[in-house]
Structure formats: C-alpha cells, structure tokens
Amino acid sequence: QVQLVESGGGSVQAGGSLRLSCVASGYTSYCMGWFRQAPGKEREGVAAIERDGSATYAESVKGRFTISKDNNKRTLYLQMNTLKPEDTAMYYCALFTGRGSCLYNYNYSGQGTQVTVAS
Hints:
Elements: E1 3-7, E2 10-13, E3 18-25, E4 31-37, E5 44-49, E6 55-57, E7 65-70, E8 75-80, E9 89-96, E10 108-109, E11 113-118
Parallel strand pairs: 2-11
Antiparallel strand pairs: 1-3, 3-8, 4-5, 4-9, 5-6, 7-8, 9-10, 9-11
C-alpha cells in the first residue's frame, strides 16, 4: 500500500521561502512530483523527478523552486524560494507508477500541506 506523508507547509510573506517534504512508502518503481491546487482552480503539476532522474518544472516556478529526492530516506523535497501570493495553494506529493511524466500524471497522492503567501 502506497503512503505519502507531506510536511513543511505554512504561512510566509512574499519573497520568503519554505521547504516541503514527503516521505513515501509502499512502492519501488515510480516517479514522484508535487502538485498544487488553489481554491476554485484545477490541480496543476509544479515539479517532478522523472524515472531517469531528471527534474521537470512548471513554467510558473522555474528558477524559484527546486525538487530533490533522498532515496535512502525515501523522501521527496520541494525547496520554494521567492514565493509569490499566487503560489498560495494546497500542495500535494504525488507518485506515478505508469508511463509518462510525473509532472502531468499521478495515481497516488498525499493529504496535502497548505502553503499561504501573504503580499
């Protein structure tokens, strides 16, 4: 059974930073990523580490967010710098066991962690 547990969300001022963490268990062959969903909007991919180890990012976060993974700890991270009010959303850790990019696909996700950026 796949389990994804996020942590690290919170409230910051615009320009601030946060680091999200996600501990994964229950599956061995996958790619992982972060999605977010703001009120009234669809869930969107933010960043992913693909099966080949490469990182992919949404255009809106390129240069500000960095995704990384510690395989020994089975933990995925999202370092978010220069946060903007439009980054306010619930952030979800996600895992995809199929073919295709983890930036656009997932079949498991965690409960989410709230990120709020004040202007």
